[in-house]
Design goal:
578 residues, mainly alpha, Amino acid/polyamine transporter I, two-stranded antiparallel sheet, two-stranded antiparallel ribbon, 4 strands, Amino_acid_permease_CS, amino-acid transport
Amino acid sequence: MTNPQKLIGQDLLPKQLSWVESVNIEASESSEAENVGVIRFERSTRHVQRKLRNRHVQLISISGVIGTALFVSIGKALYHGGAANLLLGFAIWCIPIMCITVCTAEMVCFLPISSPFLRLAHMCVDDSLGVMASWNFWFLESVQIPFEIVSVNTIIHYWRDDYNAAIPLVVQLVLYGLISLCTVRYYGEAEFWLASFKIVLAIGLYFFTFVTMLGGNPRHDRYGFRYYGEVPFKKYWPNGHGSDASGHFQGFLACVIQAAFTVAGGEYVSMLAGEVILPRKVMPRAFKQVFVRLTVLFLGSCLCVGILCSPNDPDLTAAIDESRPGAGSSPYVIAMKHLHIHVLPDIVNAALITAAFSSGNAYTYCSSRTLYGMALDGYAPKIFARCTPQGTPVFAMAVSMCWGLLSLLQLNDNSAVVLNWLINLITTSQLINFVILCVTYLFFRRVYKANRHSLPRLPFKSWWQPWPAYTGIICAGAMVFIQGYTVFFASLWSTKQFLFSYLMLFIDIGLYLGYKFIWRRGKDKFRNPTEVDFFPLLAEVDAHEYHFNYTKYIDLDSSSDRPDQNTQDGGESVTGAV
C-alpha cells in the first residue's frame, strides 16, 4: 500500500492511519476549509462531502423535522383527550424517545458516516436486518415528502381554494430539487433559516399564550388555566359508547398515539453525520439538543394548547369533524379568533407554510442519503451511490423526489383522507424504526465491548445501558400494535384502514425473513462481535479530523498498525465512501 498523501498545511498522517490506501484532502481557497477530507481507495468515485457547519447542525437538531403536526394536528389529540391527558401523554412518550435517542447518539457519534445507524445494523447484526432497516427508513422518509406537500396545500386552503392544487405541488418539488442539487452547504443554510423561523414561531406562540392568559387580549379575559380545570381528562370512545374508565383510558391513549406520530428522536440528526465538519465534536452537542426539542418545543406546545383552548370548544369540534384546512384546525388560531385578535391567524398560517416546507425539505435530504447509504452497502443499485462534483447523490435524490408525486392523490380525493392514510403508514414505519435502532444498539454494544481495547473511546456515552434500549424496544414495539387498535371495533372495521395501520409491519417482517431464508438461503448468520471491523470507515473520520488538528479521539501515541484493509469479506475491494 502507498502512504497517505500529505495533508494541506499538515504533516503526514500518524502511523496508525498509514494503512489507508490513499487520502485526498480537498480544501477551499478561503481561510476556513469548506470541502474537507474524503478517503478514496483505488475503486472509489465521487462521494458526499463534509460541508455542514456546527451552527447548521445545532439548529436542524432542534427543529429540523418539526412540521405542522406540532401546531395543527395536536388539536385532534386535545379534542380526544383533554388538556391534562395531552400533556401527560406527550410527556410519557418522550421517555422512550429519549431512551432511543441516547442509543442512537452513542452509535452515530462513534461512527459518524452516511446513514450510520442503518449501516451499523448491517455491520453489527446481520445483512437481513440491514436490508429491512434501510428499506423501512427510506420508505418512512420518502412518504413524508408527499405528506408535507399535501399539508402545504391544506394550509393554503385556509385562505382560498379556487386554484389548481397541482401548482403548489410543482413549486415545492422544484424548490426541493434546486436545494438538493446544490452542495450540502446550501441545504444547511436553507434549513438553518427555516429552522430559525420555526423556533421564532414556537416562541411567539408561547409568548402569545403567556400574555393573553394574564388578560393581555382585546377581551381582557384573565383565563389562566381555566381549561385545565374544566376538562382535564376527557372521555373518548372511538365506537361511541363504553364505560367511564375505558373512556378516560382511551382519551389518554389517543394522546399517546398522536405523540408517537408527532415526536421525532435523534434519527434525523444522525443522517447528517456523513457530511458534518468535525463530526465527533459536533454530533454529541447536536444530540443533546434533542432534549431541548422534547421539553421546550413538544411539551411546551402541549402546555400552551391546553391553556388556550377547551377540548369541548365548538369551533375545535367543528374543525376536527369537518377537517378544516391549515390553521383552521389549529388550537392557537381558534383561540385567537375567540379573543377577537385579527391578522395574527394569517401570520401563523403563513408561518405554517414555511414549517411544512422545511420538513419536506429535510425529508427529501434524509431520503436521498438513505438510498445513497443503501447503495454503498449493496442493498440498492450502485448508480444511487454516484454523486455530482458538489457531493450530491443526484440519482438517489431524483428517485426519492418521485415520492412527492403521491401528493397528486389529493386531486381526486379529499386531502384530509390522503393525510390520514399517510399518517398511519408513517407512524407504523417510525415505530418499527425505533425498535430496529434499539436492537442495533444492543448488538453494537456487544461488538464494542468485545473490541474496546483496539477501538477509540466513545464520544457520547449513554446512561444506564442496556435498560434504555430495552425500554425503547418494549414501548415502541407495543405501540406498533396499539396505534391502530380502533379498527378492531366491530362498528369501525375497515379493510383499508387495517392495511394502512399494519401493512408496513407485515412488509418488514416479510422482507427480513425473505432475505434471510430465501435470498440468502439461511446463510445470513448473526455477526461474530470479534470479527466486526470498524477501521475502514473510522479511517475517513480520523483523517478528516486530523486535518483540522482535532485529535481528541485519535491515539497519536499508539505505535500499533491497524490491520491491512485492502480486502474485506472474501477479497472484495473496499471503497472509501462514507
